Amino acid sequence: HELLATMRVNPDAPAPQPHQNKWHASDITMITYGNSILKNDEPPLQTLKRFLDDYFAGYINSVHILPFFPFCSDDGFAVKDFFQVNPELGDWEDIKAIAKDYRLMADLVINHGSSSSQWFKNFIAGHGEGHDYFYTCESDTPISSVVRPRTSPLLRETETADGIKNVWCTFSHEQVDFDFRNTEVLKTFVKIIRFYLDQGICLFRLDAVAFLWKQAGTNCLNLPQTHELVRLLRLLIEQAKSDAVIITETNIPNRENLSYFGNANEAHWIYNFSLPPLLLNTLLTGNCSYLRQWLMSMPPAQNGTAYFNFIASHDGIGLRPAEGLLTDSEIASLISTMQGFGGEISWRAAENNIKKPYEINIALFDALQGTVKGPDKWQQERFICAHAIMLALEGIPGIYIHSLLATGNDYKRLEQHQHNRAINRHQWDDAAIR
Questions:
Q1: Domain-located, residue 428
Q2: What domain range includes position 328?
Q3: Using one digit for the tens of pLDDT, what is the confidence trace for 386-410?
Q4: Going by DSSP bridges, is the β-strand pair 374-375/370-371 parallel, antiparallel, or unpaired?
Q5: Domain holding 290: CATH number?
Q6: Residues 294-317: what's their mean pLDDT?
């Protein structure tokens, strides 16, 4: 009843009708940062709103604005305050203005928080809100089986008022994992969800949710408790707003990704993570057999669920979703070709800390500049073909802003940030695209 009260839901209200589809064949989502387009002396969120209105009104009806909160690293995914808009982008009124005219997707960065947040400062002090929100373990905890998308040390020693503690960092040491064994963490995130609903947000992207629950001796990935939490959040969100949607961001092998549909009672939508590497392989090799075999094996989404199809995003082209679908030699050829086209490779730590390729970092336009034989003159045609295939598939298409603008590799930003993903996160001057 406490969670229902937080969501302002009447416990006696009838449950929403099950298996209702929350999408239409005409739906298209644009994926963008709040500051992908900049104009002097104007909050970037206002610049974004005008860009959408001027060029895409009537064509794009949804927009995913990547984390627009105060942050310390990872271009927004190390959130310092979940209840504030980054003042460098604008304010909640700007968010509401976009949500008024477009279905707005926002990130619920539910797995971890910033090491610069007030919550983590309270953790160090040993008192105050957040002091018990973060996952800690003993230094001898068995962690060799943990699967994660980074190669940095998993545990970070932190000096606190109660002595040295080891905090769990699935991603970077500036992103400290929450401890959902503590019910106060769940209650806080339900408050955050209710607050976002009040701001007009209706699509909730559960970032890195596959890593949410930790248990010593396991791989800490896709554990049953994680699925249970997704089911709970779906129930609460649906009860509060019947047309709201949960989409799980689970960049993992295809079979594991599909598990987040549950029995049409977990995610409403899931990212079709295997599409980008398979489609890229097809267009680079001229061989559609792997893509065709995968498409034929994919189950139609049940009523009430849908695939979110994309071929480019703010992250790289994931290679884990290609595992078991492409051969090792095909993946190696893909990597080599992308490096030849100016791309970078990011790595992950597999079981027993074995280093494996995690994603290819490259702008999609440059990724399609040729084939495995090298560059050719068919870049634009190949680029259009890739999007035509994506748009033809069952589900909701998500188009990255830099695909809409055919942005190439940003080597200057890569050099400035010394982070592979920066190569595909260009910032345009508003005047340059008008």
A1: yes
A2: 274-305+315-394+407-434
A3: 999 999 999 999 999 999 999 999 9
A4: antiparallel
A5: 3.20.20.80
A6: 96
Which whole-number Å values give the CA distances from 380 to 28, 30, 371, 383, 389, in the listed order? 21, 20, 13, 5, 14
**Mean pLDDT, residues 32-47 taken together:** 98
Catalytic positions, written as ranges: 207
Distance CA 428, CA 431 (A): 8
Q: Is 151 within a domain?
A: no
Tell me the pLDDT tens digit for each residue of 82-94.
Answer: 999 999 999 999 9
**51: part of which helix (H) or strand (E)?**
helix 44-56
Number of domains the chain is built from: 1
In a domain, 4, yes or no: no
| Helix boundaries (H) for 199-344 | 224-240, 254-258, 275-285, 289-297, 328-340
Contact residues for 320 (Cβ-Cβ < 8 A; gap 6+)? 149, 251, 252, 253, 273, 348, 358
Average pLDDT over the chain, rounded to an integer: 96
Q: Which helix (H) or strand (E) holds 53?
A: helix 44-56
One-letter amino acid at 65 equals I
Residue 358 within any structural domain of the chain: yes
3-state secondary structure of 358: strand
Q: Give mean pLDDT, residues 175-179.
A: 98
